[in-house]
Design brief:
- The structure is a single chain.
- By secondary structure, the chain is an alpha+beta fold.
- The termini are far apart.
- About 6% of the residues have low confidence.
Length: 185
């Protein structure tokens, strides 16, 4: 059975949730891609290599869920400002809870970074089906509105989280858009 990142539910309204996550570690890689889906497809093999033994001790690490993806557009600092069709995406695997930075083997691929994530609160919206740019944008907008209604503020980039392997039928696939939040003063 695949381990899933655990959280405590703080509040729930239909598919919208406020969650408390414990500190954890993620293995991540940043790549250029034209969409979230292509970013995951391109980065998956690099991250899978790490957990399947492409690390200094050739140790295998169990797969966990979700696989997360963040996007940050590259914007030129010239006049006129233009954005290319590609963006920079960071795709991450969550490491199993039994590991800390000292016990995880160092990656054999220098593109893979091990990053500690401190305990935090996050807002999430859950949806089924494969994700695409339009669906992600709709869920980000709905989640942002709910966050504001709750008197909270987003911190950082919105994240897309996928929980199922590619062979799960789209209608059954569990996905989420989430973002770290803090309470407003």
């Amino acid at each position: 059975m695949t381990e899933t990142l655990k959280y405590t539910l703080v509040k729930k309204e239909n598919e919208l949730e406020l969650r408390q996550y414990a500190a954890h570690i993620k293995a991540e890689v940043t790549i250029e891609a034209k969409s979230y889906r292509l970013a995951v497809e391109n980065a998956f093999g690099i991250l899978a290599g790490y957990i399947f033994g492409n690390n200094i001790s050739t140790q295998k690490i169990a797969m966990t869920t979700p696989v997360t993806t963040n996007r940050s557009e590259k914007i030129a600092m010239t006049t006129p400002v233009t954005i290319s069709g590609e963006g920079s995406y960071t795709v991450a695997f969550i490491m199993p809870a039994q590991y800390n930075l000292a016990s995880l083997p160092l990656p054999g691929d220098k593109r893979v970074k091990l990053t500690p994530v401190p305990a935090h609160q996050a807002a999430a919206i859950r949806f089924n089906g494969y994700f695409n740019e339009e669906k992600i944008a709709q869920h980000k907008q709905r989640l942002a509105g709910w966050i504001s209604e709750q008197g909270l503020s987003p911190i950082g980039e919105f994240t897309v989280a996928g929980y199922n392997p590619p062979w799960v039928p789209g209608v059954l696939a569990r996905n989420e858009v989430l973002v770290k939040v803090n309470e407003t003063e």
